[in-house]
Amino acid sequence: MTIEQLARNNVRQLTPYQSARRIGGNGDVWLNANEYPEATDYQLTQQNLNRYPECQPVSVIQRYAAYAGVKPEQVIVSRGADEGIELLMRAFCEPGIDAVLYCPPTYGMYSVSAETLGVERRTIASKSDWQLDLPAIQAALDGVKLVYVCSPNNPTGNLINPADIRELLAMTQNRALVVVDEAYIEFCPEASVVSWLAEFPNLVILRTLSKAFALAGLRCGFTLASEEIIGLLLKVIAPYPLSTPVADIAAQALSEQGIATMRQRVTELNARRDNLKKTLAECRAVTQVFPSETNYLLFSLNDSDKAFKALWEKGIILRDQNKQPGLKGCLRISIGTQRECDAVTDALKTY
């Protein structure tokens, strides 16, 4: 047998998630990964790298719990929210038996994690306004253990109607968990459903330090849920998911000063996003700029392939969304510095 034949069949057939770094490109304006555009400044304070770290660093857990308004027993920290997505599947889904459900266009790792683990992927397309098709979801729930809902949604930028999330939680009670991915919630904190955790035992929330906290390179995410669910996730998480430097910096970011700095950053970035939305709409090549509650904008163009390639050749790297269901002709742009945003609109105005 060849090495490839030794691999699991589903892995041989798997198309890996095409992250921004995996796609590559040669540029100096990187606006394709929804990162904060400028580096943050932290200094390591822990000097005990000869010791294994805590599985769940106490200071990180306590500070995030205080920030999120939950008990420490309702928090698990992991290597980005991506690990949280997978931990839930590992804890709740029997490969070859159970299914997960999600509603494209949405974040691609729900699909990749399920396929990697041999868990059935069930999709219900969002409606034309990118809201949940609840009757179709209800009809497809047999055998589903996890329903992933991204709000604000990536890549569309819109919030999911909270009344629909409530209805979904009610229809899945005692049947499945509803996992609300709030990776971008700091840009619209009033829309969080974290206060619903006491009301809905089947609610799980994913969070991250990658976006508003400007720490994408740290790989630090959180899952918020009932103590019972967190206890099950602790059974399947790796012994040392966070390195000591990651825990050190995460704790600093979650300090009172760190949170205040994050909120100021969000205020400035949201204002820049709203200005960019207006400027993009003035470009002749742009046909529509969609509303966003995040640090990115989705917009459509007359010829998105031509625009994407022309920007790429100028060293301006955006995210092509043409292959996402319902997003033909669309590109996504992360909100960069003012200089970077101007470079994009100046280039688009030449068409």
UniProtKB/TrEMBL annotation:
Q: Where is the Aminotransferase class I/classII large domain?
A: 33-348
Keyword Plastid assigned: no
The record's section on InterPro entries has: Aminotrans_II_pyridoxalP_BS (IPR001917), Aminotransferase_I/II_large (IPR004839), HisP_aminotrans (IPR005861), PyrdxlP-dep_Trfase (IPR015424), PyrdxlP-dep_Trfase_major (IPR015421), PyrdxlP-dep_Trfase_small (IPR015422)
Question: Pathway, according to UniProt?
Answer: Amino-acid biosynthesis; L-histidine biosynthesis; L-histidine from 5-phospho-alpha-D-ribose 1-diphosphate: step 7/9
Q: Which residues form a coiled coil?
A: 259-286
Q: Which domain of life is it from?
A: Bacteria
Which GO terms label this protein's molecular function in UniProt? histidinol-phosphate transaminase activity; pyridoxal phosphate binding
* Co-factor(s): pyridoxal 5'-phosphate
**Would you kindly state one Gene Ontology biological process term found in this protein's UniProt entry?**
L-histidine biosynthetic process
PROSITE patterns for this protein: AA_TRANSFER_CLASS_2
Provide the alphabetized UniProt keywords. Amino-acid biosynthesis, Aminotransferase, Coiled coil, Histidine biosynthesis, Pyridoxal phosphate, Transferase
Recorded catalytic reaction(s): these are: L-histidinol phosphate + 2-oxoglutarate = 3-(imidazol-4-yl)-2-oxopropyl phosphate + L-glutamate
Residues with the N6-(pyridoxal phosphate)lysine modification:
211
EC number(s) on file: 2.6.1.9
Q: Which family does it belong to?
A: Belongs to the class-II pyridoxal-phosphate-dependent aminotransferase family. Histidinol-phosphate aminotransferase subfamily.
Summary of subunit composition and partner proteins: Homodimer.
| NCBIfam families in alphabetical order | hisC
The protein here is known as: Histidinol-phosphate aminotransferase
User: What does UniProt list as this organism's lineage?
Assistant: Bacteria, Pseudomonadati, Pseudomonadota, Gammaproteobacteria, Enterobacterales
Gene field = hisC
